[in-house]
Design goal:
Length: 94
């Protein structure tokens, strides 16, 4: 793993500072374990993702709407009449 990858891993681990215990019945636990193996992750990460997707979806939607609004405002002020698209495309291919 690269130095950057190690650094990012440390940041991710450092951010997990709170702990909780959740009890599951056998069926639910076994199902979560199987899904975790298929997705190459942990049961804990599955639960964290489920919480984020359930309880923070509206917050993410609002953030994306604000971002799109900012992009649209910036786009209105861009003058595209003098852009050399051929050069732009060729530069992007390098």
């Amino acid at each position: 793993m690269s130095l950057t990858g190690n650094f990012l891993m440390c940041i991710h681990i450092h951010m997990l500072t709170k702990r909780t215990n959740i009890l599951f019945d056998d069926f639910t636990w076994n199902t979560l374990k199987q899904v975790a193996v298929i997705e190459n992750t942990s049961v804990g990460q599955l639960v964290r993702n489920a919480v984020k997707n359930t309880y923070f979806k509206q917050q993410q939607t609002n953030s994306r709407q604000q971002l799109m609004s900012s992009i649209e405002t910036l786009a209105k002020n861009v003058n595209t009449t003098r852009i050399n698209y051929r050069k732009l495309i060729n530069d992007g291919r390098k």
